[in-house]
Amino acid sequence: MRAQRALGTCLSGLIFVGLAATGCTTVAKAPLASRNSSKSVRPTKVTYNYTAKDRDCLKRAMYFESEHSDHDGYMAVGSVVMNRLTSGAYASSICGVVAQKRQFAPGVMTRTVSDLAEPDLEQAASEVLSGERHPDVKDAMFFHTEGLKFPYNNIHYVTVAGGNAFYEKRGLDGALETPAPLPAFEVAMNYVTTNTVTTNAVTTTPSPILLPTGDQIPVPTLDPTTTASISAVPTSTVAVPAPKPLVDGAAVQPVGFGRAGG
Predict the structure, then answer these.
(1) According to the UniProt entry, where is the signal peptide (predicted)?
(2) Which backbone phi and psi does 243 adopt, to 5 degrees?
(3) Is 86 exposed, middle or buried (0-12, 13-18, 19+ CB in 10 A)?
(4) What is the model's pLDDT at position 143?
(5) Distances from the Cα of 232 to the Cαs of 201, 229, 235, 238, 239, in angstroms?
(6) CB 190 within 8 A of CB 47
(7) Strand 142-145 to strand 164-169: parallel, antiparallel, or no bridges (unpaired)?
């Protein structure tokens, strides 16, 4: 009996120790994520409208500002144009940005673009309008010919491409001195035809002119309070001459009165 009691005591102790050890090493499970938790919402893209003319303006800027260089130079200039467009500090259209006075190369809107450069320009323009940017231009909205030096403290160079040095304007604290452009992933370019009205990146189509139908045309009516009364029955009689009396079956001739003298 003593042996059985001792064995039972030992087994009870082992079970208690095992439970205690298990309780000490148990890790609390993380609560399950709520099924109703809201999903992360991506920001809505800002849409800018552009026309075939805007596309041509973009190609012209890339071509003349990069000195007809290469794809890398085209993309760098195109990125600057888009940075200016989306910063809000410049014009609200691509042509407005490119044609701004004293900003881009003289004659950028009128000079002739070589037909040989058209394929490369078309490719670069398509890439820029679809959201691609030069990876090193970043927030730069300014550039000058490579090799030139200026004594300004706010010039922050980011890259050199197509014979140009691109830079951002930053203060001593490192902050941009100009409104920051939108990141490419927040911008959507929407092609519109020339007969669509575009204002500040909002597309509005002119409404058709509606003409009234036949049953909608008002018919004027006479107002008895403001119009003169018209009577169908004459208010006065008209004298009708009586027939001439007959004398012996013949009409009496009128008597004539001649002037006295001669």
Answers:
(1) 1-20
(2) -65, 150
(3) buried
(4) 97
(5) 68, 10, 9, 15, 19
(6) yes
(7) antiparallel
Report, as an integer, the average pLDDT of 169-193.
96
**Residue reference for tokens 């890790």:** 27
Which pTM value belongs to this model?
A: 0.61
Q: Per-residue pLDDT for 185 more than 80?
A: yes
Using CB atoms within 10 Å of the CB of residue 120, give its burial: 0 to 12 exposed, 13 to 18 middle, 19+ buried: middle
pLDDT in tens, 201-218: 444 445 455 555 555 555
Residues 61, 149, 158: CA angle, nearest 5 degrees: 60
